[in-house]
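Quick one, T. Sequence first:
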Amino acid sequence: MSYFLLFFFLLYGGMHFYAYRKIAAAFSLAPWMSACLFLVMSVMVLMPVIIRLTERVGYEYPATVLAYTGYIWMGLIFLFFCISIVIDSYLSLINLLGFFTGRDLSRLALSGRSHLLVAVSCSVLASIYGYFDAKNIRTERVVIMSDKIPAGIGRLTVVQISDVHLGLIVGRQRLGRIVKEIKRVKPDILVSTGDLVDSQIDGLGTLVDQLKGINPKYGMFAVTGNHEYYAGISRALDFTRKAGFTVLSGESRAVAGIRVAGVDDPVAYSTGTGRKHEEANALGISAPGVFNLLLKHRPSLERDTRMRFDLQLSGHVHKGQIFPFNLVSWVFYPVASGLTHLPGQGSLYVSRGTGTWGPPIRFLAPPEITVIELMRPVASVRGSASGSLHLQSSRQRHSSWPQLSAEPVL
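Structure tokens:
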């Protein structure tokens, strides 16, 4: 966590310093104006800490106001930085072409103020679009045919939510829309693949009844994500259980003729609450013909267990949440959102996430709830070597899975 915070503030501070230099150069600010701008930028860099401290001492309303201000700004400054880098790259290319051709191409360049105006305008427009798109929850549907689904049941509807991040920004209103959509689907099983909460929990008690009202036929299951530990694992687990979820911590449950297994986020190991090899223990030795559903926050695979499950449900990466941050997350988790067929019998589904972390903005990575239909195939499509046949998905991907060597905290 210390390394993550150091990396975050170096990166975030660097973005602000870059923006500060662009603004100061564009307007030739007087010394006192430069000092004021530098002070404002410094406060905004520290705003995530200020928000957390304000919330911790019980000032929920001021913390909410600061959260909207600071995190919308975070989205804006990230987009401004990315757009400005693109413009700088264009200007560098113009200069190189002019140098090698010996021609004056200055008419194709942008002045400092024009550069700033284009970058600010584009980042504001993208942020406005992303703010409203973050509230527009999509329903992704996946159909998986498997001989392992009991004949007496035939079909199981599993709904996955992930990375809801209940807290100062994602609250009763947003959760109400999520719950309404889940109830419309009428799931047999509801699962949460981590980061259900993202605050000190103090103000979340009123949200318990909303989640308890879902009441799926075969129950609700959850695993921890990294943010449950940041918020305070004891209170996070207490909230999750009161909301009606059975928390799976390196264990499994037999449900409707299938087995649902779940593991803690790796942050648990650093806090001393996790157990080694808990994924292997959770999956154990599967009984022949039993469908194994693994809940795991991060979309990573363990060499010793990758052949023991039929479907792994994960989240964590948000598909970057704000493009092009997905290019950064790809470095650590090189997997597409949606369904990926793995070598062997299993598959992995990675949710884009249902809520938002930090900025209440999603740009080219809309939120989702996922409806997974587990169905027993008719006799005409039986006989695959693995016993499972993936028929369709709104976002299906097929690829070989690279080995991952790190589990960074994102």
